[in-house]
Amino acid sequence: xxxxxxxxxxxxxxxxxxxxxxxxxxxxxxxxxxxxxxxxxxxxxxxxxxxxxxxxxxxxxxxxxxxxxxxxxxxxxxxxxxxxxxxxxxxxxxxxxxxxxxxxxxx
Length: 107
Ligand code: FES
Description:
It is a single chain. By secondary structure, this protein is an alpha+beta fold. The protein has one domain: Ubiquitin-like (UB roll) (Roll), CATH 3.10.20. Helix content is 15%, strand content 24%. It has two helices and five strands; from the N terminus they run E-E-H-E-E-E-H. It has a five-stranded mixed β-sheet, with no helix packed on it. Strand 3 and strand 4 form a beta hairpin. The protein is globular and about 45 Å long. The termini are far apart.
């Protein structure tokens, strides 16, 4: 086990993690951020996408040992609020882009 400090949706979290676990598993299992979906689990579909330090990252293939300490992670839970949706969320609603919804958080 290793200690990792992440800034997740603006909140600092210090976690004890298995270095071989994926960031997707940690976000879902330890932080209960279930918008992060694991579809293919091989880095192909993008359902597990989050933003790390301003860059889009597929979390299903990113091992915790490779995640930098103090990385700023943004998941869907950190974008907009039910009362004040992000412009991208408004556009998805307007254009009906959700489809079945499983991979929508990643997009
Ligand atoms: S679950 Fe498909 S890219 Fe990560």
